[in-house]
Amino acid sequence: MQNVYVLQLPRMPKEYIARLVFDSKHKTLCLIKNNAVIGGICFRQFPSQEFTEVVFHAVSSNEQVKGYGTHLMNHLKDYHVQCGIYHFLTYADQYAIGYFKKQGFTDKITLPKHKYEGYIKDYEGATLMQCTLNPKICYKQLSKVIKRQKEIVQGLVEWKQSKINKVYPGLTCFKKGVSRIPIENIPGILESGWTPSSVKEEEHSTVNQKQFLHIWNRLKGHNSAWPFLEPVKTEIAPDYYQYIKYPSDLQTIGEKLSQGYYKTKKMFIADVNRIFNNCRMYNDPNTEYYKYAGNLQKFFISELKEAGLYDDHQ
């Protein structure tokens, strides 16, 4: 387990890792696959103070993006519910904050300061984060429960739709060569309660689609683009779409470009940046995917500047 921590946490001194891992006050939850340790969480419990400090959390690089990190954390949560400890505290550097937020942590600390002050070490440049457990939840089954809830909601929506008496025919104007119509002209849209948006369109809404296409092709050809060329496959990351509600990838952006979807530069830039934000939200900072997202985003910004499409506040 020590070797996994040393490899995946290169900024941590080896001696410091060894001292805590072999300290009798600390415990480690290990994940073993094919008789080899591939991940773990080192933690220290403070029962009298009603919290546990998560010291190290790592998964081997070749086993990442498979949901093992979440699997470990869920087991740790259930173990602590059994122990009657309902608060986790950890210090996260800037690269790990997004990952811990995905695991239910927040930088808004509700645990009274006197409970943890003097018990855990304060790390300069790191952010203290807290996760509060619900004793009524079985965290190992949480993904299945959420999936079932979605199925129930979808069933209710379909049932409600089946009760709607008035069904409008599909639009035929596009077959006659019309490329667009006002939203309010769609049959039934006003009856549904829709009102025209008050948001002003971006100035110069007629954009140069060739610029977007050029940048898109440049992104595809970059050596850090390969993880983002197409939608994430659930075979590789089974729980990806449980956490990423608005996925984006270069293949999908290319399809939108061919359809003339991007009417403003803000729309195009937002979709591309969503690729990088989703990657950082889902992946651990120590993964190669996290690094590739940063490299490709820097390249994207340079391409925007060269095309005159970049604003400093973006």
What does this structure look like?
It is a single chain. About 3% of the residues have low confidence. It is built from eleven helices and five strands, in the order ααβββαβααβαααααα. The chain is globular.
Strand proportion, as a percent range, falls in 5-15%
Widest sheet: strand order?
1-2-3-4-5
In the predicted model, the low-confidence regions spanning at least 5 consecutive residues are 198-206
Supply the number of helical segments: 11
Secondary-structure-based class equals alpha+beta
Number of E-state strands: 5
Largest beta-sheet details? 5 strands, mixed
The residue fraction in helices comes out at 25-40%
Distance between the termini: 42 Å
> Which radius of gyration do the C-alpha atoms yield?
24 Å
Order of helices and strands: HHEEEHEHHEHHHHHH
Q: Whole-number average pLDDT?
A: 87
List its salient traits.
314 residues; alpha+beta; 11 helices; 12% strand
Provide a short characterization of the protein structure.
The chain is of the alpha+beta class. The chain has 11 helices and 5 strands; from the N terminus they run H-H-E-E-E-H-E-H-H-E-H-H-H-H-H-H.
